[in-house]
Amino acid sequence: QDAIDRKEKRSETFKTAVHGLETDTPALKTEELGRRAPQWVRDNLVTMCMRCREPFNAITRRRHHCRACGYVVCARCSDYKAELQYDGNRPNRVCQECFIFLTGHTVLEDREGKHKGILEKGAAEVSSRSLLCSSLQLLDKNGKGGTRGWFVIPQDDPLVLYIYAAPQDVRAHTSIPLLGYHVRDMPQSESRHLFQLVQSRQVFTFVADTEELKQRWMKAMARSAAGITHPEEEEEEDADE
């Protein structure tokens, strides 16, 4: 009975772990793990390990794929071998979570005490339950350069804008509390669709890919800045006016 309980617990844990991939990347069902080859998450969709959340680099932290779940992980998080049925029961590189699930072995955790912070929400999971999400560019203060990333306003945290480096990252690199900001339209400049968030001396300038996307973001940010967390609230305000 104890073995059954442990297996069921691992199953539930893994179900939550394999959710959150983009809609065009179907996750394996728990019972298919190791029995069917996974669809790999593309390298260019992540900038950090999908398990430990440490950024990748070309020298000390390179990208690897877990052969069981398809996640992009670093060498440390994929330093495990498990026999996979779809590959003739040959040992394959897998991530720690898949190793535990497939073998039943426990692994000593060396990152105890590391609490999940406000930014540690996976981009794919948040995007699937968002008010709006897309690629945008955030310009620097002089307006000549900037950072392109994946921007999300979550349904369960609608007053905050989360900024990810890539749409599959498991941790946002920054966030902007939207409440109290003013959304300012800007004229099109060199085919760039610009708009700003302004509060006192704090100004954020964004570039959208299209005018239609720009208008959608301006509307979504204006709602959040006004503290409107549900569409029904906006309809009530319009009726009052």
| H/E element sequence | HEEEEHHEEEEEEEHH
Report the CATH superfamily of the largest domain: Pleckstrin-homology domain (PH domain)/Phosphotyrosine-binding domain (PTB)
Question: What's the CATH architecture name of the largest domain?
Answer: Roll
Most strands sheet: 7 strands, antiparallel
Indicate the mean pLDDT: 79
Percent helix: 10-25%
Low-confidence stretches: 13-25, 109-116, 234-241
CATH topology type of the largest domain: PH-domain like
User: Approximately how much beta-strand content do the residues carry?
Assistant: 15-25%
Q: Radius of gyration, Cα only, in angstroms?
A: 21 Å
Number of strands: 11
Query: Any idea of the CATH class of the largest domain?
Result: Mainly Beta
SS summary, helix count: 5
**End-to-end distance, in Å?**
63 Å
Into how many domains do the coordinates divide? 2
Q: Looking at the structure, what is the overall shape?
A: elongated
Order of strands in the sheet with the most strands? 8-7-6-5-11-10-9
Structural class: alpha+beta
In short:
The chain has helices spanning 2-18, 96-103, 123-128, 211-225, 231-240; strands at 64-65, 72-73, 80-84, 90-94, 130-139, 146-154, 160-164, 174-177, 182-185, 193-199, 202-208. With 241 residues, the protein is α+β, with helices and mostly antiparallel strands. It folds into two domains: 25-115, Herpes Virus-1, CATH 3.30.40; 123-226, PH-domain like.
